[in-house]
């Protein structure tokens, strides 16, 4: 069977699954939210990570359906968690521009009963390229629903600061490449500190991604970075394992 056919069938056959990676407060270690990461249980192949099929889903136009499903599933899952922490969902550039996005978000919130402020939508810098006016209009409509908007993979695009000029994001997620650089001499500590200062001035939360060592976490705390994600703090795990993570937190 062809990859594309399998992918097309997956949405109907409920072969998609969301795994959740914790995001923690750098000072207290408390879990403040989870990022939903898509997995595809492909027959005969096991679990396929998002990175290995999102590009094809984009090309074939399937992505809008996939992201609609993800938003609905993530809201429903989060509504059942024992603590009212946030759930973050990644939006592809194509899904972002689809006519159905704002309606799908509104429906997912209504169906799940999730408080809108608990849903965070992550977009990449690429979303604001091209028809920026349309992208901004969609961002404002989404914010009108009461959801939070995060800028993902910050610093890797060609217009990082332009993104901050155009829209006031609720959160900026610093790309893992800068966090990895904290482990060696170089510009990364200064860059991270500058972004957290920008966050304090402009009113966004700063999150570090790809935190793998205790030393990186200590430096992030020192530089004033608010929250962190990464293997040090927890890998993405199946939805049914999330409630136990709250219990461990006392
Ligand atoms: O967890 P993983 O390594 O598969 O994630 C790789 C990339 O796939 C990340 O950049 C992430 O933003 C993206 N991704 C993960 N889940 C989703 C999803 O539900 N929708 C979209 N559009 N992208 C996702
Ligand atoms: O682009 P986005 O941030 O949405 O992608 C998240 C991806 O990063 C997921 O595929 C997730 O599995 C991966 N990831 C999460 N934490 C770490 C980490 O500490 N190290 C590395 N190398 N990858 C990570
Ligand atoms: Mn992300
Ligand atoms: Na990211």
TrEMBL record:
Protein name: Diguanylate cyclase (GGDEF)-like protein
Organism: Caulobacter rhizosphaerae
Domain EAL span(s) in chain numbering: 1-250
Residues represented out of the complete protein: 349 to 598 of 601
